[in-house]
Structures are given as C-alpha cells and as structure tokens.
Amino acid sequence: MAASVPKVVAQTRDRLGESAMWHADEQAIYWVDWYGPVLHRMKAGGKVESWTIPGSTLIGSFVFAAGGWLMLAVDSGLVLFDTATGALSPFADPNSGREQVSYNDSKIDRAGRLWVGTFDLAETEPRGILYCIEPDGRVTVGDSGFAVCNGPAFSPDGGVLYFSDSAAKRILAYDLDREKPVLRNRRIFAEMAPDEGMPDGLTVDAEGCLWCAHYGAGRVTRYAPDGSVRSAVTLPCPTVTSMSFGGENMTTLFVTTGWSPGITQAGDETGPGGSLFALDAGIAGLPEPLFEPRD
Questions:
Q1: Do the beta carbons of residue 86 and residue 51 sit within 8 Å?
Q2: What pTM does this model have?
Q3: Is 186 helix (H, G, I), strand (E, B) or coil?
C-alpha cells in the first residue's frame, strides 16, 4: 500500500521541529522545537500543549522514561522532566561540558539502553560522539569522529543499530550486542546523492524497513533492510528532520519540519515549514521502549 499525501496537523511554526515520538498510552504525539527550546504534545482533537524548558538554549531530543517522566537532551546534559510539575532532575552528562559541542538525537534500544549523539556546533569538526547510557547511569562510547550525530534507530529484533552520519551524507549500520552496549561490523547502509540532502532522523517499521528524513531535500525515504530504496514521500518544505509512527493502529507517520533560513539555503519563512505533518504510511511502526532509570 502506498503512503498518502502528507497533511499539516499542527502549525506550530517551529524554527527546527525535531524528535517526533508517539506515546501509545496517552495516544499523543510529542516533538520539540530545537531552538525553542520547546516541547510539544498533541493528543486526539488536535490541541497542542507546549512547555518551554528553563535554563536551556537548545533541546536536541527526548525519550520517554518510566514514571511519566521524559529524558531531555539539553545543553547541560540529560535531564528528567515532569510535564505535570515542570520539575527537572539531572541524570547524566557524558559530554562533560565540552565547549562548542552539544547533544542531538537520541533513542532507546530494544534492551532499554539510551543512545544519544553529540555534534560540533559549527558542524565541521569530527567532535561528535555516539554514547550509550544504561539505566544505572553507566556510559559507554559506541563510536566517535562525527561532525553531526543523528538518527539512531534499531531493527525490530534489536540486533542492528542504524545511525545518520549527517555531514558525511550517509547512513551507517552496526551489529548491536543485546547483552552489552557494543557495536560491531560498522558498514555503510546508504549514501545520499548531492540533491538528496543529509540523513537526519530515522525510524524502523514492523517489516524491518528503515525510514529516513532528508534534511534539506524535502523528503522521507523508506529503505529495505538491504539498503535498497522501497519508496519515497515528498513534503512541501525542504527542512525535514524526524518522524515517528503513531495513531491507533501505528500506521500514521508523523513528520517534523523546520523553516529557518539559517538552517538550509532553501529556508521558508512563509510556507508550511515548521509544521508537524502526518500521512498514512500504509505499514505499521513499532512502539518506542521506555527508559527506566535505576540507582
């Protein structure tokens, strides 16, 4: 079944919408405005609630955590956030305050470990590191030497980690150990042509295909597990950043976008860029695991 035409479902005009994530229990889609730094939530009915994160200038991403908390990746590190009270609780800072380096995309693997990447603020030097943080706070370096870390997503069985090496315009794949956070057999999964932008957010569907947001090229591509292209969806704005399956049957694909002309040469301050889009993907996605911090 072919995907439907993307439609705007929230006109939040985010300078850089990012980190779409479906909360199955709440039947709500969450996402952020990276530069806000703002967290959005939209439940059935279309009403959008938003929280500005105090004490931060950027919010790279977030994941859902146990107890109704969210784990935010902000300037100062990984912090737990309670939407009910606005309370913030520091959890870890593997970046250790390195100057001109900040946090970006994050996801939970099938074993409940948090993977988060960093990036060089100038997006030129290979200072970015892909970290793994275990529920007890232990930190492991998965890989390093990237200007911009993006994406991570995991195969349905948890045995493969996909990663967007954005500045190099390629998606990497690794074999992931289920028992310990060790990456092996690094390989190129897909490479972007000059007119295809940069790979940004990633997610995997129930058939094991990988979906990639093309930052700067206005499209989302579905790749088979062997790296071949299955299909592509065009969006009416160039800055496409992330996506998440959701909805009652997990077949709705929510896609975040941005508008700032400072982000891509084809910035759009008056069109639909910065909106949250949705489309019927024609295939179901997988629920995102929870992060369960423990002492």
A1: yes
A2: 0.95
A3: strand
